[in-house]
Design a protein that fits this description.
By secondary structure, the chain is an all-beta fold. Strands 2, 4, 5, 6, 9, 10 and 11 form a 7-stranded mixed beta sheet that branches. The protein has a 4-stranded antiparallel beta sheet with strand order 1-3-8-7, with no helix packed on it.
Length: 126
């Protein structure tokens, strides 16, 4: 059974930075595509960034390109999201997710992922 636990959220001023981390427990971490989704109040959940397994494609939502970077450490079985130049509109609950069998065209579809963390709140004050 896979478990995902996020950490690193908090309150930051606009223009600041945060680094989210996700600890993966379970087997065969390398075989999972990993990602970060977010959901703001009154809005639908959206993919922020995803990183395919075995060093594959990385995708980002347009609004974070150039500001956010997703990475993974296969030895420590962690997933990170470095968030720079944060904006008020980045305020949301951020969720770590993992799944197998995803192809590039399904990376933005939350239903394609198998496991989810409980989320961590990111609040950016303007």
């Amino acid at each position: 059974q896979v478990q995902l636990v996020e950490s690193g959220g908090g309150l930051v001023q606009a223009g600041g930075s945060l680094r989210l981390s996700c600890a993966f427990s379970g087997e065969n971490f390398r075989s999972y595509t990993v990602g970060w989704f977010r959901q703001a109040p009154g809005k639908e959940r959206e993919l922020v960034a995803a990183l395919k397994r075995y060093g594959g494609d990385t995708v980002y939502v347009d609004s974070v390109k150039g500001r956010f970077t997703i990475s993974r450490d296969n030895d420590k079985t962690t997933v990170s999201l470095q968030m720079n130049s944060l904006k008020h509109e980045d305020t949301a609950v951020y969720y770590c997710t993992a799944g197998r069998g995803l192809i590039t065209s399904t990376l933005r579809n939350g239903a394609a992922y198998d496991y989810w963390g409980l989320g961590t709140q990111v609040t950016v004050s303007s």
